[in-house]
Amino acid sequence: MSTGIRWLEIAVAAPTEAAEAIAEVLSRYAPHGVAFDYGPISAEEGDWEHPPLPRDTLTVLAYLPIVEGWEEARQRVEEGLWHLSQILPFPPPRFRVIDEEEWAEAWKAHYDVLRVGPFVIRPTWRPAELRPGELLIELDPGMAFGTGAHPTTRLCLRALAEWLRPGERVLDLGTGSGILAIAAARRGAARVWALDIDPVAVRVARENVRRNGLSDRVEVGQGSLEEALARGEGFDGILANILAPVIRRFCEQGLSALLRPGGWAVVSGFLEGEQEISVREALEAAGLRVCGRWAEADWVALGARKDAESVRGELEPDRREMRH
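and the corresponding structure tokens:
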């Protein structure tokens, strides 16, 4: 039933390196999250056999309900984006008022069925037919990040398909919508612990886990690396699709201690160049051997392993000297 609410569409054309920061500003005021529009990508083009062409720009979209106080929220969005544009130059946002029916279609239009390796990501409002061997992930992103539309999510899914072995225990840090945790369980992980500091993401991820019938194997909780370390549990694999500074901090705080000998970590959420180099150095300083790399456009995912013979305490002194 229609509520008669109108919505303010906010669209920002941005270079890829500024997209995450813009999304962070918009997400403070957009109750249904932020969408990344790379242009039309069909289900077939979303497959890794037919990847989308690299693009230097994309459109970040958010929808603000026009209710009491919306003018102030719009002003804060404009101010936040202006300040950000002084650091990372990008054009001013475009605004458009639309009605509820148009909003519902516009928001959902940014999410289509995607095929990434063996995974088929189906938004709950889209039909999809599975081919032999494909693994279905039914998803309603709600207000949480993670639909498969962003390159870093696709990179992690591709890495997961290559590295995860059935029966492994996996930790997903910054789970967002729960997409990677669900994918790990679909791929055969025995247990997955999915953590996020955002209570909204925790709720959305739990709903998606239930929707996929995986509550018996995927546990969703609020927290981050500190909670995982306090639990004292070892994992065969760790997933972290976050940001370069957070990944570096995780490495310094003991990420490798959570991995069993021979275990692996897949990290993403950063760009090639300086960000990739800094993450690679942080992983190696933590005693992990970087031996996997996946890339799409300017975005990168790195895979690292904890060799059985590696002793972190013996590696740290030389690593610290190299960083100074």
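(Above: one complete record from the training split.) The domain at 128-323 is CATH 3.40.50.150 (Rossmann fold).
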